[in-house]
Amino acid sequence: MATDLQTAPALPAVSTLPTPAAPATDDIGFDRELLMMLAKVPLTAILWTVAAYIGHLIWGALDTSTEGSVNYGSIVVICIGMVLAAVIDGYAFKVPNWLTLSLVVAGWYLGLLHTCGVMVDAGQGGIGQALLGTLIGFAVLFPALAIGGMGEGDVKMTMGFGAWMGAFFGDGSAFGMSGAAMIWWSFALGVMIGGVFGLVIMVCRRQFENNGRNFREILTDLQTLVTHGPEKAAARANSRRKEWVRLPYGVPLCVGFLAYLWFRLIYAV
Predict the structure, then answer these.
(1) What three-state secondary structure class fits 31?
(2) Which of 7, 122, 223, 227 is deepest in the core (most CB within 10 A)?
């Protein structure tokens, strides 16, 4: 007997796409690329330490001043590191870990060498002063980092500068200025220069009402940081992220570092 039912046409085969391979990780869950970068940091730091020693030798060979002058060869090397970090930040709005972390570790190496009596440069600070300088470099930028107003690379850059200042100037007994004071005043000058950069940008954009409102919001973010902690402050600040004007803050920080070093070591001597 004939039937009105017809066999339904076969559905086209659905191709199964291959599942993307997960990023290579090791057994403890770290990204392999991150592990490779961290493994290279101590080796890169050795290169910076060797550069500090070479800078010390070059300064000594070129210095024709009277006996008793200070050899700032290793300070020139950290200045080169800061300039390199600022250039990268100005171009890419990001300072790479291989640079910032290696500068931090190199500062520790110099401090450790001084503690062990191996004088590769004219520095007077030991490992304790280098670690203290690193901590101060982190502390001065922590509020801005906590509310999302400062990149981690800028903080690590300042920590590297702090490690070298601590390792070189130590408690200041030999230079009249401690490493901690050098870090603080260099940072303060960098903040002022950053403020000038920000004012120039505001004038160029001519959005004074918005800028005034953003300034009040930032003050509230800092108040939230004190009263409710970093998580609440960061969440509040990130809610306005689309309105932010990006500023490579490593540039004014670098200018502040170098300007204060020049004033303190060359002009004010």
Answers:
(1) strand
(2) 122
Report if pTM > 0.85.
Answer: no
C-alpha pair distances (Å), 258 with each of 76, 78, 186, 224, 263: 10, 10, 8, 33, 9
CA distance 269 to 262: 10
Residue 100 inside a domain? The answer is yes
Residue 16 falls within a domain, yes or no? no
Tell me which residue range forms the domain holding 257: 32-63+71-267
Classify residue 225: in a domain, yes or no.
Answer: yes
In-domain check, residue 99? yes
Convert the pLDDT of each residue in 164-186 to its tens digit: 999 999 998 888 889 999 999 99
Picking from 264, 98, 90, 267, the residue whose alpha carbon sits closest to that of residue 194 is: 90
Both structure tokens of 24:
């290579």
Q: How far apart are CA 193 and CA 188, in angstroms?
A: 9
CB atoms closer than 10 angstroms to residue 250: 29
* Closest CA relative to residue 256, chosen from 165, 168, 166: 165
Nearest to 60 by CA among 109, 119, 122, 114: 122
Looking up tokens 């007077």 gives 124
Structure tokens at 243: 């309105």
